[in-house]
Amino acid sequence: MITVTEALDALFALVSPLATEDVPLRHANGRVLARDVAAQRTQPPFAASSMDGYAVKAAEVEADALFKVIGESAAGHRWDGVVGAGQAVRIFTGAPVPQGADFVVIQEDTIRRGDLITLGRNVGSKDNIRAAGVDFTKGTPLSAPRLLTPADIALLASMNIADVPVVRRPVVSLISTGDELVMPGEAPGPDQIIASNTFGLAAMLEDLGAHPRILPIAADTEGSLRAAFDLAKGSDLVITVGGASVGDHDLVAPVAAEMGMEQSFYKVAMRPGKPLMAGRLSGMPMVGLPGNPVSAMVCGSVFIAPLVRAMQGLPKTAAPRQKMTLAAPLTANGPREHYMRGTTTAQGVISADLQDSSLLSVLSTSDVLIVRPAGDPARAIGDVVETIAI
Ligand SMILES: Nc1nc2c(c(=O)[nH]1)N[C@H]1C(S)=C(S)[C@@H](COP(=O)(O)OP(=O)(O)OC[C@H]3O[C@@H](n4cnc5c(N)ncnc54)[C@H](O)[C@@H]3O)O[C@H]1N2
Ligand code: MOO
After folding, report:
1. Is any atom of ligand 2 closer than 6 Å to the C-beta of 168?
2. Is residue 87 assigned to a domain?
3. Residues 6+ apart with CB under 8 A from 189
4. Residues in contact with 343: Cβ distance below 8 Å, sequence separation at least 6, in sequence order
5. Residue 272: is its pLDDT beyond 90?
6. What pLDDT score was predicted for residue 120?
7. What SS3 state is found at 368?
8. Same-domain status, 289 and 365
9. Could you tell me the pTM of the whole model?
C-alpha cells in the first residue's frame, strides 16, 4: 500500500490546468483567476474626504480659527474653485478635496453661523483625506492563480474589470455503484438504501468551483458499469463510488481494467479510504472511491478537493492543516494514517466516540478531521495534533 502523500502525488500527475474562459464579474466568485488582471483605473481617482466637514488649509488649522464657507463639494459633484486663505468648502465623505485645501475639519469640531465657521479647540492633526491612489493605481495587478473570494470580487469591481478570465469549471461525473442503491426520493426495496455519497460529493465539488454531474446508479453488473463509464466520456474527471473493495460484487477495478484503464495505484495506507484507486480511463483521470459514506467524503476532502483545485490551476498542494490542542485523549493509532472525525470546542479538539466509516450523522456533527500519522502513540489532553477543516 502507498502512503497518502504518494497517492496524492500520483493523482496530481493525472491532471493539468484546464482552459480559460471569460465570465461576467457576477459569476466569478469561487472561480480561479486564470491570468493576471490590471486595474483599469486609480482608486480613489482624486484626493477624497473621508469625513463630512469643511476643507481648509492645514496651515490655518488652530483653535478658534474663523473661515468663510465659499462652496460645497459632494460625492459625485466636485467644487471646482481654489480654496484661498481664510476660506473653507463644505465637504462630504467621498467628495473630491478642492484645490488649495489639504485638511478636512470634521463638522463636529466646528460651529457654523451663516457663511462662517469657527473651529473648536480639539481639532487634532488627522487630515481626514484619502490620497489619490491610496487603494490602488491604474495598472496594479491582481495576480493569478487565485481563488476569487467575495473581497476579490469587490476589488475587481472597483478596478472596473467587468469580465474576468477564469479557469473553466472541471466537469466531474459521479457514478454510484451497487444494486442496493436508489436515488433520494425513490422508494427503496427492503434491502435497499439511498445513494448519499454522490450527493455529498456533488455538493463538495460545487463548493470547489467544479461542475458535478450525478450519473444514473450503476447496478452490480459489468454492462451497467460500462454504460455508466460511457456516459461519463468527455468529462474532465470521473469518480466512481463503491465497488472498490475485494468482494465478489466489487466490479469497478475489473471493468475499468477491461476498458483499458491505466491504473496509477490501488489501496492507500489510510483509514478510512483504504480501497482507493486511480488511473486514466478513456483519456479521463478516474478515481474510484470506497463506498462507505464517510470514507467517500473523507477521500473527497483529502484527495478530490486538492485535485480539483489543481485542475483549476491552483498549486498542487495537500489539504491545508491547522494545529489544534486536544481536549480529550486519543488511543494509539495503528499502521495506517487515520483521519478521525472531530469537533472543535473552546477547550480544543475532541474526537468523536464512534469512528465507523458508515456514520454520516457523526460526520455531519464534526467540523475537522484529526490526522493521526501511522503508528502515532496515544495522545493526552493538551497535546497538539494536526487537523483538516471539513
Ligand atoms: N474483506 C474485506 N472487506 C472489506 C475491506 C477489506 O479490505 N477486506 N475493506 C472495507 C473497507 S475499508 C471499505 S471502505 C469498504 C469499501 O468497499 P467498496 O468500495 O467496495 O464499497 P461497497 O462494498 O460497494 O459499499 C460499502 C458500503 O457503502 C455503501 N455504499 C456504497 N455506495 C454508496 C452510495 N453511493 N451512497 C451510500 N452508501 C453507499 C454500501 O451500501 C455498503 O454499505 O469495504 C470494506 N470491506
Ligand atoms: O477504508 Mo474503509 O474506507 O475504512 O471504511
Report:
1. no
2. yes
3. 182
4. 349, 350, 352, 365, 366, 367, 368
5. yes
6. 97
7. strand
8. no
9. 0.92
DSSP structural state of residue 25: G
12 in any annotated domain: yes
Pocket probe for ligand 2: among 246, 276, 289, 292, the residue whose CB has the most ligand atoms within 8 Å is 292
Domain count, the chain: 4
Give the Å distance between the CA of 289 and the centre of ligand 2.
Answer: 10
The enclosing domain of 329 has a CATH number of 2.40.340.10
Give the span between the Cα atoms of 28 and 335, in whole angstroms.
43
Mean per-residue pLDDT for 67-79?
98
- What's the rounded Cα separation, in Å, for the pair 327 and 381? 5
The one-letter amino acid code at 102 reads D
Tens digits of residue pLDDT in 151-179: 999 999 999 999 999 999 999 999 999 99
Residue 87 sits in a domain whose CATH number is 2.170.190.11
Atom of ligand 1 nearest to the CA of 180: 41
What is the domain range of residue 147? 20-43+135-167
Ligand 1 atom 2: residue of nearest CA: 246
ipTM exceeding 0.90? yes
Q: In what order do the strands lie in the sheet with 163-167?
A: 20-24, 163-167, 32-33, 146-147
